[in-house]
User: Which sequence fits this backbone?
């Protein structure tokens, strides 16, 4: 199962990016998580560019289109979704393979409920399927703000792994029901 992870932060020391990298390292053997690193290369969304899609947009669309699910972690800026994440999602609106795409949301700031709600609304409008049981807020402390700190914390690793297992179950259809979504 292939999962593309998208971070709404471009900071080198981003907690959201660290959370996604930790998730990639904790993923079950049959789940490959690839952290997409090109969101900062995307031009601002402009429908006029659809005639000749920029290579960075084509790369994002190919990665997302080829994934069985998405894993998103994004900070809250001014009570909203980061511009980086919103711009990436705007470029994905016309991607037909995004419809019914399973998505798990990891929230590294539990008090960031405005952006979490806005992100959910955008994804719902885009016809994605937010897997609620795999969408969690993780309470981080001063010693768990880095990838290594997260991996050294049993409560954090347990929360991440539980979310990943729920995402996998949603995609693959737990209990012998067969896949709920097409698996690549």
Assistant:
């Amino acid at each position: 199962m292939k999962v593309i992870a998208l971070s709404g932060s471009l900071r080198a020391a981003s907690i959201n990016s660290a959370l996604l990298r930790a998730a990639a390292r904790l993923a079950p053997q049959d789940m490959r998580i690839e952290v997409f690193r090109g969101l900062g290369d995307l031009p601002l969304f402009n429908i006029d560019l659809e005639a000749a899609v920029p290579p960075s947009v084509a790369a994002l669309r190919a990665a997302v289109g080829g994934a069985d699910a998405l894993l998103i972690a994004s900070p809250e800026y001014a009570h909203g979704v980061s511009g980086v994440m919103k711009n990436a999602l705007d470029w994905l609106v016309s991607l037909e393979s995004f419809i019914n795409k399973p998505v798990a949301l990891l929230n590294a700031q539990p008090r960031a409920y405005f952006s979490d709600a806005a992100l959910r609304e955008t994804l719902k409008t885009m016809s994605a399927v937010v897997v609620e049981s795999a969408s969690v807020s993780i309470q981080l402390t001063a010693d768990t703000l880095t990838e290594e700190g997260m991996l050294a914390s049993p409560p954090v690793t347990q929360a991440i792994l539980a979310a990943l297992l729920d995402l996998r179950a949603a995609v693959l259809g737990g209990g012998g029901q067969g896949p709920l979504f097409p698996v690549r």
Helices lie at 15-26, 55-65, 83-92, 113-125, 147-151, 154-172. The first strand starts at residue 2 and ends at 7. The CA atoms of residues 81 and 118 lie 7 Å apart. Residues 154-172 form the longest helix (19 residues).
